[in-house]
Amino acid sequence: MAGYIPIDAKKALKKLREKKKPVSISAVAALVLVLLFTVLFMRKGDLKLPECKDCGAYNPISPVFPGSLNKILNDEAFKLSSISHLSGAVQIPTQVFDNSPDPTGKKDDFLWRNFTVFQDYLQKTYPLVFEKFSFEKVNHHGMLMTWETENTKGKKPMAFLSHQDVVPVDPTSIEKWTHPPFDGVYDPKNDYIYGRGVVDCKLLLISQFESLSKLIEDGFEPTTRPIILSIGFDEEAMGSKGGAKLAEFLYERYGEHGLYGITDEGGLTAKTPEGDYIGMVIPSEKGYVDMFITLDSTESGHGSIPPVDGGAIVIMSKLGVSLYNDPYEPTITTNNPALEFLQCAAKYSPDYLPGLSKAMKSKSQSKLLDATSSNLNIAYLFKTTQAMDIFNSGVKANALPEQATLVVNHRIGLHSSVNATKDHVLEHVLDLAKENDLSVSVVYADGAKEVVKPDGKHGNFTVTLYSSLEPTKISPTAGDALYEIIAGTTVNTYQQTLFNPHGNASVYVSPFLSTGNMDMKYYGKLSDRQYRYTAALLVPDSNIHTVDEKTTSKAFLSSIAYLYQLIPNIDAMSADED
């Protein structure tokens, strides 16, 4: 699908109004004609819809190793046993923080010791898995597990990613939880399993171990390609210590495109308003950059004599308001996987978004953007977002601060870049710098420094880029062997009686996109097939990362059942590919 970036009439008009130099009448006339044509074109229909496989055209793949599939989905004893294993995993608080230091591997490494306890728990709970898989530790707590048989030597492995860490629990919020966050309580009355990490990401991690343990017990053995589990330990803090190091280790071992394919957390399977199911497979990620904007001001001193410009806090507050009032424009491109998802929803779930079907038929970008604006989870898939997450300044009530810092988190749209995002922020910083006689410098993620505006009489703005990540390459979808296996396995899973008791629910599979990032962002060179998808049933009120994080036994079992089929299916159906 070719990329298509439409002209943005609003931005063009804005730039025209802001021009301070005189321009010729002919130039203005020419520009007006271009803008008029653009507006008229947009009204008639400027949206080029991608040609894609119908999301309802995927057939179920009958599992090549049916084994215990029925038991996984319908046996009460298996369900309770699996839940107890997930509960035990939640009870080990593997919290990670943004400022966590590097692990040392020593027994007295207080911050990371729970990860050692967690890995001991996995070895005790899943002895069959650790008997079959080799287990290597990368950077002390990264888990790299490989199942290689005589028949699979020299073949490209299939890798399954997850992570051990969870976001911290705010101590002030504990009383708000229905059950303590690290108790892992299962309430059979409402079928909820409560606990921090029960969704992100211990459900996937334990599902991988449950499915593999059962496969081994039932006699499965890979014959086509090795199986890898690559399990990070700081994904919630950008993954630089865990996921990044594991990816580097695998790259050194297998080389570029050395893996057959990779899956990770991400997309789920949602139940539609019509009672059908749609699996949302994520083949790409938005970009990312944190910008730490620091103002070092010379206008400090005693609070009884405030400066005319208000000082560091006032200037930085103006910057925050200025950025807020100039959000990034949404842009729909045909290579955005979310557009294909909207086509699927418009055809098979017209109640998903009000006005979606009508907007899709009109092929008007503006109408489609209007239809998605009511749901931020969808609207943000087509734009760069900015979130002002941290503001620091001041230490004393009667002392004007010498410094103020604003941290702005960006999730970069597929059509944009880190550099374009930096330029957007810099435009606002420069406006305030000129107004208040401040110099401006940019420090890039690699440490390079650029002076953008020298000579500031009243201080200096420093814009520092952290954790910059360009939007990732889009993996192939319909027609690709691995994607087709994932899709067919999803359809078969949700046609089972547990999810489809009357046999009348349809199962669709579509590419999708996510507003967040995963450890997979570090694995780009290892495979062109990268899919962020657990297939687990979406729980609408799962409260990920907040009070009462929870899932259901049904969602948990859907993930186990899917993986129990997927692993043998890939082994059998990818034999002719490498």
Keywords:
single chain, 578 residues, alpha/beta, 34% helix, globular, disordered N terminus
Write a brief caption for the model:
The protein has helices at residues 9-18, 25-45, 69-74, 76-90, 113-125, 127-132, 202-217, 243-254, 312-324, 337-348, 356-362, 365-372, 376-379, 418-436, 481-494, 553-573, and strands at residues 134-138, 142-147, 158-163, 186-187, 192-194, 227-232, 261-271, 277-281, 287-297, 301-302, 385-393, 399-400, 403-412, 439-443, 449-453, 459-469, 507-511, 530-537, 550-552. With 578 residues, the chain is of the alpha/beta class. The model is unreliable at 1-25 and 31-44 (pLDDT under 50).
Written description of the protein model:
Belongs to the peptidase M20A family. InterPro entries: Bact_exopeptidase_dim_dom, Pept_M20_carboxypep, Pept_M20A, Peptidase_M20. The active site is at residues 165, 235. The strands form 4 sheets. Strands 1, 2, 3, 6, 7, 8, 17 and 18 form an 8-stranded mixed beta sheet that branches. The protein has a 6-stranded mixed beta sheet with strand order 11-13-9-16-14-15, with helices on one face. It has a 3-stranded antiparallel beta sheet with strand order 4-5-19. A hairpin with a 4-residue loop joins strand 4 and strand 5 (192-194). Helices cover 34% and strands 20% of the residues. It is built from 16 helices and 19 strands. The protein has 578 residues and is of the alpha/beta class. The protein has 3 domains: 9-46 and 332-379, no CATH class; 69-97 and 111-284 and 472-573, Aminopeptidase (3-Layer(aba) Sandwich); 287-325 and 386-469, 2-Layer Sandwich (Alpha-Beta Plaits). Helix 7 (202-217) crosses helix 16, helix 11 runs antiparallel to helix 12 and helix 15 runs antiparallel to helix 16 (553-573).
